[in-house]
Prior knowledge:
By secondary structure, the chain is mainly alpha-helical. It contains ten helices and no strands. Helix content is 78%, strand content 0%. The protein starts with a helix and ends with a helix. The relative contact order is 0.23.
Amino acid sequence: MFIELSLVGIFIGAMAGFFGIGGGMILVPVLLAIGFEIKDAIGISIIQMVFSSVFGSYLNHKKGTLIIGEGIFVGIGGFIGGFIGGKVTHLVSDNVLQFLFLGLLLFAMFRLFFSKNHTADTETKTLNKAVLLGIGFVIGIFSITLGVGGSIILTPILVGILHYPIKKAVSAGLFFVVFSSIAGMISRLTIGTIDFQNGLVVAIASLVGVTLGIWMKEHVKDTHHKMALVLLYIFATGMLIKKMWFL
């Protein structure tokens, strides 16, 4: 199991670094497929997201692709939302959560697909700090409730509404995962346990993958990076629809 979890960690880390995602939407189904229970899988996913997002954000900052400024306010909102999300999961039915998440995914995919390809010198838009906190708060609730990092929703907002270049939006999305995943882990620990033994195996291995993923992100054209992201959204939407109507 150690080897399998290490390989899974490297793969998920590469996805996190390249797409700026927490990796939960891929990791949780993989862990279920190799025999973990859903609660253990989500716990392991949260640990992995903490490690990969912190390390990945450090690497992105060193490379100059991470805009921390306004991301702090979105992140604080995400932290509060993530903490609450870890506690209210049992109060909302799975069907309601799934339909709401599907709507957010479709909105995010639409915004990303029809957004312009902004260059590094494009002037980004700004929003009121309270609005940024609110955006982070809502995304944080959904992300931790569903065991994902939240950047899958945030990145298209940054690209489609605030005119972030795709690579900087991906870096900001991964930075957001730092806040939501740490909050989610704290929240989960207050109401239950997390499989730290297996979680640390996946998390430490993911650091290798994150390094590889960020290297690939820096060496791919923006247009190709955007299309890869769109394909990821299509995959995630298809997986959710299959779960909702065909399982």
